[in-house]
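Re: beginner question about structure tokens

> Can someone show what the tokenized structure looks like for a real chain? I only ever see the sequence side.

Sure, here's an example I had lying around. Input first:
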Amino acid sequence: MSARAPAYLCLALAALLPTASARADALADFYRGKLITFIVGSDPGGSFGPYAQVLAEHMPKYIPESPKIIIKYTGGQSGGLQLANTIQSVMPADGLNMAMTQQTIVLNQVLQPAYAKYDARQWLWLGNMSPVRNMLAIWHKAKATTIEQAKTTEVVIGATGPSSPTYIVPNLLNKFLGTKYKIVTGYKGAADLNLAMERGEIEGRGASWVSVQLAMPEAIADGRIKPVVFASITRDPSAPDVPTLAELMTDPLHKQVAEFLSAESDFGRSVFLPPGVPADRVAMLRAAFEKTMKDKDFLADAARLRLTIEPMSHEELARITVKVVTAPKDVIELAK
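And the corresponding structure tokens:
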């Protein structure tokens, strides 16, 4: 019996080889001469741009026939809701389109169901390049530079739209802690918000802290802009004295809501495909993404651009998505 086992094993392996080879040939045939469109729900001026660019530069080497990845920016207005709706129902599910949008997009599925015509549980996650901690940062010329001062003094905060973290964080502070942040919407993205602060139009802004670190490192160094709170599960290592939203809450239900809203940080710079992409292309693109996260040239370029790389798997993103979408009704209703 033992002498015959290797022969059976060889026969079994031989039977599998043509199938695997056929799959590889089919993928190569499909991607030969093609372009992959990488749609990014932001403007290129924040931290989305560098993350998208470094991924687009290095991921093609792990895709059959190395198709070029071109980036299309759609703006971050309304927290990427319009893009998410497009991804769900319009974007071709062919493996030639992938996306990255605002990290609040899964939360907005339950917070704004009237506008969210998508189900993130159906999306095909490739993975997350890095968690991104959203925050509220105050410009040094603001009339109130701390949360306590903002409880009695109005401070003008710029935001893109009501489903964006630029709006959610100061609004939550107003509702739960009694701050007087006056939120002005309509800005296109982080670059517009930074310019508005420097012009004196606004006195602070939200979004990711990394978008400030990338665009305004000198303003951080000389104290012109400082974070006052982070919408994240853990404190930011670069500002360990700044509390999280949940840490500021004394009411247990408010703390649950803060933790629920802070789950957005886990989605960070996540990349996904629309529902319905053929399974072999999904598996290949997931493997390509994972290999890119370990690629020495990718990591070197990310370090040069001061981008933090803390990869998260597609399985973990799917698990967190389900957890968010099925959160307790009282938490969701109060978060709304």
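Each token stands for a local structural state, so reading them left to right follows the chain. The mean pLDDT is 91.
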